[in-house]
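Quick one: C-alpha cells for this chain, please?
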Amino acid sequence: QICLSLVKLLFYLAHSPLGSIVLLDFQPRQFVMVDGNLKVTDMDDASTEELPCKEDNDCTLDFPTKSFPLKCSMAGKCEGINEKKNLFNAYRYFFTYLLPHSAPPTLRPLLSDILNATGDLRYGINETLRAFEKVLHLYKSGLYLQKRPLLLKDYISLKGFRTVEGEDYKCWPSYSHLGCLLSIHSAEEAAAICNSQPQCQSFIVTQQRTWTGRPLASFQSSWTDLIPDTNAVVYIKRSASSG
C-alpha cells in the first residue's frame, strides 16, 4: 500500500502541470500516510528545474552507490533526470525495505522484477506504475492463487460463531501481535494456510477488510469457547472436532 501510493504520487509529480517535479530532500520523514494515501509534508525542497547540458557527458545522475548516464535532449536539458531521481530514491528508501516482505510466494517474483528494474532505472515511472497495478490486480482478484487440491471440505463451518479472543500462536505477517491474523482471498485459501501451520486447528473469517477489500481471517490452535457473532464464520478441522 505504501509503495503503490508513493508510485502514484511520483507519477503525478512526473506529469504535473508545472512540469516534472523533483523532491530534492527525499527522505521517509518527508512523507505521511493520510487515509491510506502517502502525502508529502514539505514541498520547500521541490523543484521543476532540470539539469542543463550541452552533451550526454553532462548528464550523470549520481547516488552514493550508483551512477546513471542520461541523455542530453535537443532542448539542452538532461532527459528525465527529475523523474529518475525521484524513482531511484523511492527504490532505495522504500522499495528495498518493503517490497521483499509479506507478499504471497507467487507474487514475489513480480515484486523482485519491480525492485530490480527500478534499482537499475530500467523502468520509468509509467512502467513502474503499470507493474504495481498488475500485481495489485492479481492480488485482489485471487488470480495469483495456484491450483491446488480443495481443502475446505476437510473443515466444518459454523456460521454466526467465533471463538473468544485471546492470545494464541503467532505467524508472519500478522495484522495482530496477539495471534495469527491474515488477509485472505477466500475461505479456501484460509484452509490452505491453516493446513500449512502445524498449530492451526480452526480459523474464523470476519467482516473486517483490508485496504484492498480482502477479508481478515484469524487462525487459532483450538476451537473451544465459541460465542455467538452474526458477522463471523468459524471453520474447524474435522480431525480436530471428531471428539
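The chain has six helices and eleven strands.
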